[in-house]
TrEMBL record:
Names of required cofactors: Mg(2+)
GO terms assigned for molecular function: alkaline phosphatase activity; metal ion binding; phosphoglycolate phosphatase activity
Cofactor mode of binding and number, as noted: Divalent metal ions. Mg(2+) is the most effective.
EC assignment: 3.1.3.41
Entry binding sites for substrate: 219
Lineage, broadest ranks: Eukaryota, Fungi, Dikarya, Basidiomycota, Agaricomycotina
Catalysed reactions, as listed in the record: 4-nitrophenyl phosphate + H2O = 4-nitrophenol + phosphate + H(+)
Record Pfam families: Hydrolase_6 (PF13344), Hydrolase_like (PF13242)
Residues noted as binding Mg(2+) in the record, renumbered to the chain: 22, 24, 244
Keywords: Hydrolase, Magnesium, Metal-binding
Organism (species): Calocera viscosa (strain TUFC12733)
Superkingdom of this protein's organism: Eukaryota
Name of the protein described by the UniProt record: 4-nitrophenylphosphatase
GO CC terms: cytoplasm
Amino acid sequence: MARLQTAEELSKLLDYETFLFDCDGVLWQGDVLIPGAKEALALLRQHKKRIIFVTNNASKSRKAYKKKFDVLGIEAYEEEVFGSAYATAVYCSEVLKFKKGVDRVYIIGMSGIEEELDTEGIGHSGGSDPEDLQAGPYTLDQFKEDPSIKAVIVGLDQYLNYTKISKALQYLVRNEGCHFIATNDDSTYPAKDGILPGAGSMFAPLQYILKRSPVSIGKPNKTMLDCIVAKQHFDRKKSIMIGDRLETDVKFGIDGGIDTCLVMTGIAKEEDITGPNASDIKPTYVMASVGCLTQLVGST
């Protein structure tokens, strides 16, 4: 694990051809850009580096992420964005072989999952359905069987309620063949002034009830990286993953045979890498912020 602080040390990163970036906590916090992030990405593009944005946030589709990049003034393209919502939709269509127009899923999540499922031709209920957004008590006589539901998908849901959890539970207990899928298992995600509950917190009630863990698609799981490599065809040995979490971003790179760089602008803290209870997960490099790359302006 090497610290990158000086321009000479940071120049090592220019030896890589492909840069995979987490977004929340690395490029921005909430809707606020990390200082120097925009300039750092522009620098890498000037050096003809391939850039891929890899996010576990399933609340937004690739199209929605592109709009966020545009608003923040960052050059980015939809095909460069790989979110867990997209990977989950691909998993349903390509791995589980759900039949388009026939098989459906129930969603605890937001519009990002719905939009990506739509692109794969997979029907869905739950999510943003007005019927499922109403808070209040839920009784079993309200549940309507839907034999076309083949999976329950859980992602970040800022409108999580008792109704959604109750419906998801019924599908999972009444149909032994119903797949239990999580877009990712992040317990939290970084916000401007702290942390908020993540997708892992959303499926925890069902996991506790069922004594069963979902298949998790997002980082650090291999499914996500295999999907990216299949689409982008890059050399893992000449690639680096830059993220703010040891247990997701860094482990994702290590398990996938990719070098890693931890930034300290999100979830990870100094004691996580150097303290007496430091994690066993060790990044290849550590730098304070992605903005540190701006020291390389003018490098050749």
